[in-house]
């Protein structure tokens, strides 16, 4: 039988057409299946490169944002020099004219009777001469069973910021005492904060304690530039029995040792960048702090402060407002009582000792040379 063959339109058979096709014009390269492991390897390489690029971009963006945050909230504030001018100088016979006398029950629940101005003057608990103003506790009553008479004064002016210089010739001390020179807003505590510039208890031979007491969200855990010893970093009054965030000075910063050296100059700077405190011997303060020098003081030249409370983790401007200057001598209370025997080895019970031992408080008095307040436009 004859085989029927099919022909292409040009008359050639498929075999002839195929046989005549030149080999070098045909694509003989192998194709890669999407199921081939070699294909997977190539795709994974591409994916890895893309992922690496994305990761690098993320790292760069994070670094830039971190840099921005670092600039907006530095780990330590800028305490640049400020131009201070003298706003007030309280000294001499008119010293107490700048204060109101507190004669209500003690807000700190001490074993004390704060007397009014007339009583304080008539019993010689406050008096002022040309070179000194005295504020003392009673040292005559031998049966002060309801608390010993004393004085607490509060400045008529209030302050939001400034440089405050307390030139003090004598600091009070003795078992059971709780004296302080401090600042607060009596009408809004602790909402507007408290700054303890000069404070201690009992014999006062452990040094001056400087502290802040505030509402929530004020801590001092970040870097600080100071020479004092840290005693607590949470300033919120609702923690640690209202111990506040405190810094302790050397034993020579308060009490008999300081008094024997002629007293001390205590300086406190309150500004948005932070709160800083210095203590100098009265015989050798910086030149711009000498009593007879009218030079504008410049804290940036005084060296490291004893206490530094930076604004890093505490908005100083919002936590401290309407600050009055307060000076007082309290007795017993929470602090003096808590360390009365354990730390200071004082005899008996605090309240009993204070009530019956009048002559033990002959050294319980403040002698102020002057209070100077400097302000700035910043």
TrEMBL record:
One of its GO biological process terms is: glucan catabolic process
GO terms, molecular function: endo-1,3(4)-beta-glucanase activity
Q: Is Transmembrane helix a UniProt keyword of this protein?
A: yes
EC number from the UniProt entry: 3.2.1.6
Tell me which UniProt keywords the record has, alphabetically.
Glycosidase, Hydrolase, Membrane, Transmembrane, Transmembrane helix
Q: Which residues cross the membrane?
A: 44-64
Q: Ranges for the GH16 domain?
A: 77-344
Location of region: Disordered: 1-37
Q: Does the keyword Membrane apply?
A: yes
| CDD domains per record | GH16_fungal_Lam16A_glucanase
Similarity annotation: Belongs to the glycosyl hydrolase 16 family.
What PANTHER family does its record include? GLYCOSYL HYDROLASE-RELATED, PUTATIVE (AFU_ORTHOLOGUE AFUA_5G02280)-RELATED
This protein's name? endo-1,3(4)-beta-glucanase
Q: Which organism is it from?
A: Aureobasidium pullulans
